[in-house]
Amino acid sequence: MTRKQRRLTLIGVAGTVLLAAVGLVLFALSGKITLFVTPADIAAKNIGPGQQIRLGGLVKVGSVVKSDGAAVRFEIEDTVKTIKVTYAGVLPDLFREGQGVVTEGKLTADGGFVADTVLAKHDETYMPKEVADSLKAQGHWNPADANKPKPQ
Amino acid sequence: MIVEIGHYALILSLVLALVQSVVPVVGAARRDPRLMAVAGPTALFQFLFVGLAFAALTWAYVVSDFSVYNVVANSHSQKPLIFKISGVWGNHEGSMLLWVTILALFGALVALFSRNLPPTLRANVLAVQAWVGVAFLTFILLTSNPFERLDKPPFEGQDLNPILQDVGLAIHPPLLYLGYVGCSVAFAFAVAALIEGRIDAAWARWVRPWTLGAWIFLTLGIAMGSYWAYYELGWGGWWFWDPVENASLMPWLVATALLHSAIVMEKREALKVWTVLMAILAFALSLLGTFLVRSGVLTSVHAFATDPARGVFILGILTLFVGGSLALYAARASLLTQGGIFAPISREGALVLNNLFLTAACAAVLIGTLYPLLVEATTGGKISVGEPFFNLTFGPLVLPLLLLLPLGPFLAWKRGDVLAVAQRLWLAFALAIVAVAVAFYLKHGGPVLAPFGAGLAAWIMLGAIAEPMTRAKFGKEPLATSARRLFGLPRSTFGTALAHFGVGMMVLGIVSEGAWKVERILVMKPGETVELGGYGVTFEGTVPRKGPNYQDQVGKFVVSDGGTVVARLESAKRLFTARQMPTSEVALETRGLFSQIYIALGEAQDSGGWSVRMYWKPLVLLIWLGALVMSIGGFVSLSDRRLRVGAPKPARAAAALAAAE
Fold this sequence. Notes:
The complex is a heterodimer of chains A (152) and B (661). With 152 residues, chain A is α+β, with helices and mostly antiparallel strands. Chain A has two domains: 1-32; 36-146, CATH 2.40.50.140. Chain A contains three helices and seven strands. Chain A has helices at residues 3-31, 39-44, 129-137; strands at residues 33-37, 52-59, 65-66, 71-77, 82-88, 100-107, 113-119. A five-stranded mixed barrel of chain A has the order 2-4-5-7-6. The longest helix of chain A has 29 residues, at 3-31. Chain A is elongated. In chain B, strand 5 (550-561) and strand 6 form a beta hairpin. The relative contact order of chain B is 0.08. Chain B starts with a helix and ends with a helix. Chain B is 63% helix and 12% strand. Chain B has a five-stranded antiparallel beta sheet with strand order 3-4-5-6-7, with no helix packed on it. Chain B has helices at residues 2-30, 33-36, 39-62, 69-74, 81-86, 92-112, 119-143, 167-196, 201-232, 243-268, 272-294, 308-332, 347-379, 387-404, 418-442, 450-471, 479-488, 491-516, 621-638, 650-660, and strands at 383-385, 518-524, 529-532, 535-546, 550-561, 564-576, 581-585, 587-591, 595-604, 610-617. In chain B, helix 7 (119-143) packs across helix 8 (167-196). Chain B is α+β, with helices and mostly antiparallel strands and 661 residues long. Chains A and B meet through helix 1, strand 1 and helix 3 of A and helix 13, strand 1, helix 14, strand 2 and strand 7 of B. Strand 1 (33-37) of chain A pairs antiparallel with strand 1 (383-385) of chain B.
């Protein structure tokens, strides 16, 4: 092999790997990302049943129903709309009525939501960032809830 | 008083760092040995003072000094001592202090162990380390002072976030920071080489042990964090593609690439420019990780701070160092003499391929991590990039790397011979095929591809074993001769074999956990029994129990195998009283050597039952044991004499340390 051929081989292999990587990333970005929405967004953004989305908002007080089959029903609300959610699984430690939550799953044909994951990674004083932002945008956010005491 | 001394020591170390970042560079430019000699002592004293500051903060935590705001916000007098200490870095300010303490530690180590470096290189390396130190010390003193006092101290602290009160998480940040900050040494060497415009094989030899050390800690730190997430969060998962996890994975991928490309540079004087780039990128990604975690741009348990001033400051540091070093790279890289171009089929060629796949995989992770931020910044829309994205991008980029991994060490330098390699590896390949067949026979359920995954793992492990065996000529010479040859092999050979074997173990654990795990989520009433992975699990009810700073609701479970009781387990719902915050204490029972039964107690149901989440996780422990074996391989390599060429004798180093104090 001449020097030139060696160099071409190197560039060829590197180019192939790079192209494959770019192709994979572009393909994955087009199909494998999930949108974050609040109940109000669903009508506005025209999201149909079957699409994988993240739904975030507040857990409506008094809406949580624990039945015996380990499936839990609750409602997620923002200031505008409320959506009924079904989740077959164990709720995370920090799931509470009146607090922020993010769920991932699909809308059903009758306007409900079936969650396959319920995320509650925030701590007591900290809302999920997406939920906090969307509530702020709707003017329904009291920052005093989230603040720790500051040094004098 | 001690707290004020700590604060003062921190300011002093900033002053020292400022001196260290200017004087040695001037000295190196003017070839003035007296100015260059300033670097060593300042590095040692900088570590002494930063260490003093860290000790002062630790003291405030240990004695629960509630006049210090940081202690109030993150500690509690009732907390066990170990978590009082780990609380020091369980918050933003303290963890940044730990960061600079480790940075100063590495600076001091470089100062101690670099006496036989060319003096100009040594001066420049220590100066670059000091630049990083100045940036982060300023950051701490201006925006994140851990020594801030309160006028009216409260009687009790607010406690550390309960999910951080865990032994695993007590040691996870120090390990990870040793890895992150360890990358700064390779970075300092790279920038120093660019400043001098000169680089040779010896440079790679100096950089490799530091990179290897950082890589070992990074490996352990990531594995520790993953195991913590597995048992503490109660979800049964071990990797979530969370941005914070990605932030630690990216430097690891590039540091792995750097380790491999430095070998090429050391042996063949090739890939110089590329290796320097890897050294810069490894630290740049460490800084990016620090930024992502510390600035609070991401939502996660790690984002303790959401103060925009800090985010902007760290972004500034990030831009300065990454932008500056890349600009320097662009301007000066052409000065570094190029090595020869080599044959595609050769050890060098294989290592280039390794680097290509690792960096491409890292780029995919980078895009997946930053894309949501980009979308939010430009369109305001919120998206999440999760597991499906990474499975589709990271997976296919790592798969060829894993498939080719056993071949690399068998290829000769300069010109390899595929046929010869095939002759040496056919047995390993045949056995891997057998492993696929065995997996098919044993496991009827699960995805069709899973047995091939198990075969891939076998291929990697067998290939790793085959390499030292072939080198020792097992089967070609009498057993005694080849055994003697085996013991005569350099330690780095065993290090490589161990690290690669660990990769195989990890792949086997991932495949087995992913494909053959059994999940049961249900409501159980006391006395009820369910089947799980061949075992019977009986729920016996719950009892309350009180801990030092929490209250448990303990669920009792009995695991039986064909009628005989094999284990009694306790899985608890733990309520931390100070913050009224619940956590899960998962029950884990290891069966066989590597498989686990995993039981997380949910909550009480209206009917008197409890929701329970149970898993049978076959071979799951191999995931973390694989990482452990990889880092042991790193340690073995590090102990190789050839890597220590030119390092001062331990006695001299000890004497120097004593003199410095």
